[in-house]
Structure formats: structure tokens, C-alpha cells
Amino acid sequence: MKNQSIEGIDVHCHVGAGARATGAVGELLKKLKEANVAKCVVSPIQLKEYNFETFTYAEQNDAVASLAKTYPEKIIPFARINPGAGEAALDEAKRAFTKLNAVGIKLQPSVDGYSLSNYTLLQVLEEAEKYNTVVLIHTGLNRIDAVAHPLACIDLARQFKGVKFILAHAASLLQDAYEQGNLLPNVWFETSIHSTPFTISNYVKKYGDSRLLFGSDYPYSDPFIERLKIERAGLSESSKRKILLENTERLFEK
Q1: How many angstroms separate the CA atoms of 60 and 64, rounded?
Q2: Which of 129, 186, 226, 237 gives 20 to 30 Å between its CA and that of 209?
């Protein structure tokens, strides 16, 4: 890949044996090297089977925390929280912030089966606000993902101003989400899956380059492929550096 001299940070990766794919740390590190990605955010993958109302991802969060200790220069640990588990989920969020050294949390409402009005979710976000935490949230527009509609996610960002929200999958390319999200200082957009070189270029032309973050959603996509979209978007070297690296560095500043 030409002009791949900028080391990137991938803000969206998973490890574990999942319902549709398996994320193996060895393969992930190999793919990061191929794409010249220095480090990545890792959270537990969607599991094959579990009880929505009781499952807390505690064991999987422990595994991610352990990987971060093994590869401290490569892995940024995020805990996955399932607010459907009620009080146990709130306890797990508190444990993630205070015991596991999680840098942020991953939320996937459509898969884990809860709404954005879930009371425990609001409690989790209140707790996250105390720690100035980053929250990576899945977004979508189709029938299943509509529970995580990008505009509903932005409403959460308005409510919890002390939480830094990353809207995954480029907020499903929804222009209203871009327009509203860019008015809020605590909203960023991650580029995986739905974006193309054209949509990335168009976003930068309309809204600037300070809110886009490079992500791959490994193992559901490949860091090399997702980076290639940015490389082929006709951006300046300055814009590429911001999207691949500098915006994420700024996001994680305390």
C-alpha cells in the first residue's frame, strides 16, 4: 500500500469465539501489522449463546484485561456491558472502571437485547460520566439495528455530556447524525463496514476531519481493507493522519 507510513490506531476490534466469527489475538496482531496499525481497542465479541437477562460478560472482560497486560503496547481494553442484566451489569461496569483498568466500554443494544431507554444503561452511563469514559456504541438503521439508531445515540450524548461517544459504522452514513453529532463536543464517528472512499471524502468535505476515527470491526472486517478506504479517499496527508491516529490520541486524553 502506498503512503502507508502513518501508524494507525484501530478503535473497533473484538476477540473471542462469536456467533458469526472468531476473533483470535494472534490473527488480530498479524492483521494490524499488515495494515501498519500500532494498537487497537479490543472488546469481547458477540457470543454464540447466552441469556440476555443475566449475562454480564464478566469472564470475557477479564480475558480482554489479561490480553492488555500481555500486550500493553498493542491492546487498549474496553469492557463489554449488557444492561439487560440489570444491577449485575451496573456492578460489572463499576468493576471495569475501578478494577480492570478498562479505558472504555462497548455497547451493542441490538445484539444484547436492550433499548437505549433501559434504566440500567442510563445508570451505567452515569457511572461512565464519573470517569470521563469512552463509550463505543454500535449503530444501525435496519430492522434489527434500529434500536441503536444513530440519532437515538446522539440523544444519549446530549444527555451525558461527560461521556465520549464513538458511533460505530460511521453512524450508518446518516447525514442528520453527522450534522447533529458535529455540534456536540463528545461525539465521534468510527469508519468501519459501511463507509467507502467516497463517503469518507464527502464527510471530510462537509464536516471536516476532526471527528472521524479509523476502525475495522475485526473479525467482521479486516484492518487492511478498512484502512484502504481511507487511503483511497483522496485526502490530504494531514487529514489521513488525523483520522488514522491523532483524533484517537486526542479522544483518549484525560
Answers
A1: 6
A2: 129
In CATH, what number is assigned to the domain containing residue 209?
A: 3.20.20.140
| Cell 463505543 -> residue | 136
pLDDT, tens digit (0-9, with 9 covering 90-100), for 103-155: 999 999 998 989 999 999 999 999 999 998 999 999 998 877 888 999 999 99
Strand partners, 77: 42
Half-sphere exposure at residue 207, Cβ-oriented, CA atoms within 13 angstroms? 25
**What's the chain's length in residues?**
254
Structural domain total, the chain: 1
Would residue 2 count as lying in a domain?
Answer: no
**Inter-residue long-range contacts of 46-53, CB under 8 Å, 24+ positions, other chains counted:** 46/14, 46/18, 46/19, 46/20, 46/108, 46/111, 46/112, 47/16, 47/17, 47/18, 47/19, 48/17, 48/18, 48/19, 49/19, 52/82, 52/84, 52/112, 52/113, 52/114, 53/84, 53/85, 53/86
